[in-house]
Amino acid sequence: MKIMIISINDISGGAARAAFRLHESLxxxxxxxxxxxxxxxxDIDSVVTPYGSKxxxxxxxxKTLRIFYTAYxxxxxKKYKQLKNSQWGPFLPAIIKNPRLVKGIxxxxxxxxxxxxxxxxxxxxxxxAKIKMPIIWSLHDQxxxxxxxxxxxNEQVTLNSDFNTMCEKYTTQCGKCPFLNSNKTKDLSHSVLxxxxxxxxxxxxxxxxxxSQWLADCAKKxxxxxxxNIVCLPNPINTNIFKPIDKFHSRILWxxxxxxxxxxxxxxxxxxxxxxxxxxxxxxxxxxSSENIELVVFGASKPKxxxxxxxxxxxxxxxxxxxxxxxLYNACDVxxxxxxxxxxxxxIMESLACANPVVAFDIGGNSDMIEHKKNGYLAQAFDTFDFxxxxxxxxxxxxxxxxxxxARDKVVREFDYAVxxxxxxxxxxxxxx
Length: 433
What we know:
Layout: E1 2-6, H1 14-28, E2 32-36, E3 47-48, H2 56-77, H3 85-88, H4 99-108, E4 112-115, H5 125-129, E5 135-139, H6 188-202, E6 206-210, H7 213-221, E7 229-232, H8 247-254, E8 261-266, H9 278-285, E9 293-298, E10 313-315, H10 322-331, E11 334-337, H11 346-353, E12 358-361, H12 366-369, E13 376-379, H13 384-395, H14 400-414, H15 417-432
Parallel strand pairs: 1-2, 1-4, 2-3, 4-5, 5-6, 6-7, 8-9, 8-11, 9-10, 11-12, 12-13
């Protein structure tokens, strides 16, 4: 059985890292897996690019295509002058086609093509329909079934809106898009969703994977994937690498104090992307009653206009390897994830695997990993009082060691490489039959 995993990157970004981990887990389970990416950062031989290491002309073609794609789509979006890009992430029409890449995929003849994050100049919707092999598509966000947004906005496009009030036009027909701040019924979101509907009705052999139960349920409600085979399967993690190590020495490595309660917050662009909840974190921490605390932030350097936290903040900048992450998770006493949007957070899974409890809002796929008051705390959505309560509850818990054990046990039991790879292999075999 030959599997081709397709992602725009291999180890750069959360979705790419999740896809790469699945690729690794399949290789460890003796499956012939190959990963096809546009931007390769790893040195793994089984990760390849469509232009090869020596084909300079092909490489120039793909790079030029990406540049043209970006410029053209920005031109399309220019008329939506109040586009809420800074709050909700990119809006991606995925119009530019990449026929050479599709031709190359079909020429390689894998048994199954497993798509992950493939927009932003890699594959258009029309390209996907031309892939000749059975397709599995793991959804890392909502883009596949929306009119172009990666996460839906609400009607007023306010940051503190609850998930229950989110725009659900993708379940019927997009238009008058709150993300684009558009008043037109037939706007860009309408045309993008129509394209997706039209193309996917012609794509018979496609299976959709929601990496969290929340996202699988969203896909089932969508007009694009109506009556499709939609399953919920998680990302895997290597629990032989992400594991508990000595807290004392971990703190020495990071020059962190030994006798403080250390709370950890981090993500890519942790302090600059609103949906990561940096402002909610500040609000919650102002209500924490626990004493002797320091905050540790990774994924961002100290901002010029840093927020006034009630205690010392240690900014560690961007981390680029798993060893650094693992030692940091183990150095701290609790991981905080105040995000407004999460599918199946790598950060939560990694922290739990290192026996570090997590406090997060009960949104998205967080409840797939966090069992309330068993291995962490699920606060009511965007309720900073409850979030602060969760921090206090973890830090002062008389059964803290049991919380840590439960955190690790949950991940080993449900998300370990061998456990998850077996589920994917069963799905592949079922599709091929």
